Amino acid sequence: MASHTNITDLPDPVFEEILSLLSLKEAVATCLSSKQWSHIRMSLPSLDFDESNFSSIHCFLQYVDTVMRLRDDSETLKKFHLILRSICSRKNLKKINTQINAALDSKPEHVEIYDHNACNNKIPSCIFKCNTITVLKLTGVQVMTTTPSFVDLPSLKVLHLSNVIFSNPKFVYNLLYSCPSLQDLLLKYCFTPHRGRILPINRESLRKSVPAYASQYPFSLEERLKNLVSADVYNYPFTLQSLSNARTLRIDTVCLSKFILLLFIFRFCN
Amino acid sequence: MSSSVEAITVLSSDGDEFKITVSAAKLSKPLNWMLEDVCFSDDCDEVPTIEVNSKTLVKVIEYCEKHAPRANSGASDSDAEELKKWDIEFMKMDVKDILFHILMAANYLHMEGLYDLACQTAADLMKGMTVSQIRKIFHIKNDFSSEEQEQLRRQHPGCSFD
């Protein structure tokens, strides 16, 4: 072992291991404490941006912009995590989506976006075409795309959607259909606009559109979701048969008749 | 290796001799390989050197001896809880003098448990700190010129420097 005695002489992999245990803000502050470390802030593999650590949305966006701008594009981005807490103006939403797009260009594996306010951000549709993503968690966003060709998530293993507004309920079907590796599904409180109101996506709203749509695919949803291990669904708009590969299943029973539930439990017990 | 050997002698990089039990040495991959390759009987005059200074090696051996019984036989939850408390006490050490060496040693000796523990200890010391507080805790010299410092402040408006 060399005779270094300064903590800044730690080999990069050891230092990066320590940084991985910190929030992004703390990791950047640590990198800025020494010249030897300062370059590492440009290649941090995990970016977690949480607005609550900042005094204003303005400060927060400026910070996100700095980190993303200084980032070395050649470095892979493992995780991109964005948490928004205040209501954003249209201009700010545009800035946020520019950053999301930049993150998607770095071919991330793990993407989580939480908007704790009123679902007013229309998420860039290219997120559903990012074939490196293995974990995708979206809360409180709008999905405006409808075309099936806009979905290609061959690596996706974990999909958690909660409080998401879909401009067309058919897209939920396209989405599940395009995730052949899916193992863990959470689908809760998904909505669609209907005659000026926002309504939950349910079997009723899909009844007309999906059967016609489904015939375009050579497999059933059940055959497609053959790797499913765990599903946690509320108001699931498709047949429960399509989740029958799951080993653990949690269904919020509000929308189910007792009869269907009993049948289903019976099926799983066997 | 003779099965009767229960402890082996190793040399630190400062040339001091240390005894470590075989079960404790097994927590380190390189030491384990050494055990398999080298003759460690009493009449064997070869004493392997570990490239870790004496002060650090004492700590590393202390950690190994404490963790070896659990690593070898598994342990109940109450043991795990007790060990966790022991780890916290064990890591209360002088940052400048020893934490760096423990990190280097755990990395060099491929000791996963100690490595994770030391990394977590270092990270906990950095948590919630400003740039200058981190410099103070880890005795890091501020090697940026005032112009560079100004530039970094402009680049990172959301970062607390002082």
From TrEMBL, chain A:
Protein name: F-box domain-containing protein
Pfam families: F-box, LRR_At5g56370
Cross-referenced InterPro entries: F-box-like_dom_sf, F-box_dom, FBL13/AtMIF1-like, LRR_dom_sf, LRR_FXL15/At3g58940/PEG3-like
F-box domain: residues covered: 4-57
Cited Gene3D superfamilies: Ribonuclease Inhibitor
Residues of the signal peptide: none
Lineage of the species this protein comes from: Eukaryota, Viridiplantae, Streptophyta, Embryophyta, Tracheophyta
Taxonomic source organism: Acacia crassicarpa (northern wattle)
Membrane spanning residue stretches: none
PROSITE patterns reported for this sequence: FBOX (PS50181)
SUPFAM superfamilies per UniProt: F-box domain (SSF81383), RNI-like (SSF52047)
UniProtKB/TrEMBL annotation, chain B:
Sequence ranges assigned to domain SKP1 component POZ in this UniProt record: 8-67
SUPFAM superfamilies: POZ domain, Skp1 dimerisation domain-like
InterPro entries: SKP1 (IPR016897), SKP1-like (IPR001232), SKP1-like_dim_sf (IPR036296), SKP1/BTB/POZ_sf (IPR011333), Skp1_comp_dimer (IPR016072), Skp1_comp_POZ (IPR016073)
The UniProt record lists the keyword Mitochondrion: no
Domain of life, source organism: Eukaryota
GO BP terms in the entry: jasmonic acid mediated signaling pathway; protein ubiquitination; ubiquitin-dependent protein catabolic process
Record pathway: Protein modification; protein ubiquitination
Coiled coil: none
This protein's UniProt keywords: Ubl conjugation pathway
Ranges for domain SKP1 component dimerisation: 113-157
Family, as annotated: Belongs to the SKP1 family.
PANTHER family: SKP1
Functional description taken from the UniProt entry: Involved in ubiquitination and subsequent proteasomal degradation of target proteins. Together with CUL1, RBX1 and a F-box protein, it forms a SCF E3 ubiquitin ligase complex. The functional specificity of this complex depends on the type of F-box protein. In the SCF complex, it serves as an adapter that links the F-box protein to CUL1.
Subunit (UniProt): Part of a SCF (SKP1-cullin-F-box) protein ligase complex.
Protein name: SKP1-like protein
Organism the protein comes from: Acacia crassicarpa (northern wattle)
